Amino acid sequence: MNANQISLLSAPPVGLIGECKVASVIQLAEDVKAHLVDVDLKTGALYVAEIKAQQVQKFVPLSLVGNML
Q1: What is the pLDDT of residue 46?
Q2: Which domain of life is it from (predicted)?
């Protein structure tokens, strides 16, 4: 991943890729390059590891709309 932005998409379980919609966007700092992304299926929290930073950022959704997970 060579971007400082993470897009969260909502998509039908089965269907055309054209039916996907951007649900949310997380903008990281300009010099941050995401290395690893993981999702906690119980809480919906998103974990993003940063290249060379030796740290992980945790993003917690304010609410889950329509049980995205």
Answers
A1: 87
A2: Eukaryota
Q: How many angstroms separate the first and last alpha carbons of the chain?
A: 22
- Rounded to an integer, the average pLDDT of 2-16 is 77
Predicted confidence at residue 58, as pLDDT, reads 87
Q: How many CA atoms lie within 13 A of 32 on its CB side?
A: 17
For residues 20 and 45, the answer to whether their CB atoms sit within 8 Å is: no
**Region 57-65 average pLDDT:** 72
Question: With 0-12 CB in 10 A as exposed, 13-18 as middle and 19+ as buried, what is 23?
Answer: middle
Residues 63, 21, 19, 39: is their CA dihedral positive or negative? negative
Give the separation between CA 55 and CA 40, rounded to whole angstroms.
Answer: 17
